């Protein structure tokens, strides 16, 4: 067995809960700041050790001045106490400052790593999480864990050396009394070892409730118009009140399970002090120890016991920090399910075709969404997908850029499975215009430039022109530099869509996906957006999903998707000649009846 294996075995033996291991995983983040970290923690040693000075100095002072009442009093002792206490105070300030600086830096570094991890999460992760969960897991837990990591270490080191120095004072003054004090100390600390088991499950539930509360705030902001339009004030308030009550109840359970620790420690400490006073009084009378010994001992004992009495409250906070650290480590260790193969190829444009070969897919196990879909789209072809809602149309286009990975079958670009290309190069070759294009807080310019951050002014203005945004932008006082608000709340649906189209123009990818890009627009806005889309579709391989069949009549081929199966395939005329065909039925229900009514 190697030395490394032996050390690993010892760690596992003494660290069954994985606390040391978790701390060790975060320690590399302190490497950049090793000097300040070492200084912050190193200062805790003299800070703790100096606690013994006051207690130790009281022995000669009491024996000489208070008992012997000699005129040759040690005048320098009060000055030494002031000097040592001032030194301890300065070191404590310096250590606190270093702790805050290093803790803040490490927390920021950790958040950067976590944010990068968040950016690379697959779509399934976001499908199963709320905004509250994201904020809790990737922001709040980093604050809780790292913010308290150094403080816990500093406090721990300080108290260890404080305890060692104070126990030394106890032994120096009376080893008999010291034995009593140490036994009481051990008995008081033992219950803390069960703290983790007591609060772990409850804390997890409490954190989940906290996530739901954050989500409620986010929804109050994002969904304010829906709340107003449907008079949902009471409904939303009830849901919010329920989550608050759940969190309160869980908080009270934690208090119920841990609140007894602090009073119990007070009782045990008082028992220890009472025992020491009783035995110490007897020993003074017998002359075993002096009054100075006794006063020095009691002072050291009280200084030793005082932080112990507070451990019941501090331990809960420390365990919360450790549990937050566990969740942080879990996210740091998480490996994306959708990732590059070691030998992944770089996709350099589309040269031939895109093929779905017996593709099967499911979001949830044993609940198939696609049941063996096969088709082939040639370069430059416009391929439309129509059918009933929930049939699998959006799922098909989401599989091309690998938002999800298929269960079985193959999706091939130029004869190579998309899983064999690097994710970056695959997605660089695909532009997507969604039904509701997400706009980031910032200016119109910043939101269009997302399509190509290195685009020139000439390319930017060409994209604006092709997207029919010129007149709109000219009407704005600040033009391209107009701030659009969070999620683009200051823009209309048509304006948002045209910004999304302008992004796609700037990206200039050979494969274009239009996922119901006009379905949420009124007729006037749809006409303008449709003109912009027609410009965008030129010389590209296009996948288009639409409920309004006017937007797909001119497609080279139309695939009808029903309940996860491709049931019809052909151009508009071919599909219209299928008697009792699904496409024909959809077309007639949308147009023939409307024309007859008119």
Provide keyphrases for this structure.
23 helices, four-stranded antiparallel β-sheet, six-stranded mixed β-sheet, alpha/beta, 598 residues
In a nutshell, what does this entry contain?
Helix 5 runs parallel beside helix 8 and helix 10 crosses helix 14. The chain has 598 residues and is an alpha/beta fold.
Model description:
The chain is α/β, with parallel strands linked by helices. It is 62% helix and 11% strand. It is built from 23 helices and ten strands. The protein has a six-stranded mixed sheet, with helices on both faces. Strands 2-1-4-5 form a four-stranded antiparallel sheet, covered by helices on one side. Strand 9 and strand 10 form a beta hairpin. Helix 10 crosses helix 14 and helix 18 crosses helix 20. The N terminus is likely disordered.
